[in-house]
Amino acid sequence: MTINNDGELLALDCDSLTFSWKEGDDPVLKDVNLSLGKGDRCLLLGANGAGKSTLLRILAGKRLTKTRSCKILGQDVFMNPPGGVVYLGTEWSTNPVVRSDIVVSHFLDSVGGYRHKDRRDKLLRILDVDLDWHMHQISDGERRRVQLCMGLMAEWDVLLLDEVTVDLDVLVRADLIDFLISESENRGATIVYATHIFDGLKKFPTQICHMQLGSTPRGMVTWPPADVPESEQDLFQLALGWLRDDRELRRAVEKQKGRVRGPKTDTRDRVTFYEKYDYSH
Where is each ABC transporter domain found (predicted)? Predict the structure, then answer.
């Protein structure tokens, strides 16, 4: 059981997690460390392919790991998953069920919305959801709002968000962020939020975790930084600098392996390619 410096049980404790898709493959996560107390709000930053989604799915108990490296509220996330953990990812919107001809009110009731009427109605207002919408007729952004209402209407202890606000308009996203902040401050709920959109997030995180090529080289970074004047605190520029460093490191690593992204100068196979795929004759 992992305890923080105040003698309290950590809400989330990921200790030196290493994970590979198959045994013998290079790890996609290497010695990842992530520790959060109750009420912490962690912004998970990193380039595409850095391992953010893989980490969140492991924390949600959706990926089997052989190590007992990840615990939520003191319980192993896969062997003994705790209650009160909500994971919301982008893959939800591709499920054929949520694109079928079902009315939103019936859809929410089918997952227990009637048991959480007060929170459900609050989220319906925040997310600007119409209960008479038909799921197959609405936009991706509106469908995302329904997903968030469905996932957040029961009280949760730990929330794992993976790029689920990318479809939301600015106003709805801002209201949702305010709701999440209030949940952490008033109920002590813990949030890990992976996103590439930093507008309006300056007041959201209490911690930042930077993922770089599957690892967490900086550990947990407190936000806002105590040694930087408020007028100079720029979350976007901080992330941009880290991502530029990540790209240079990634290019160096790939170069050592003989891999280079972008256009190739070797076009020896161009004639063979066109002869193979030229259907004009």
Answer: 12-238
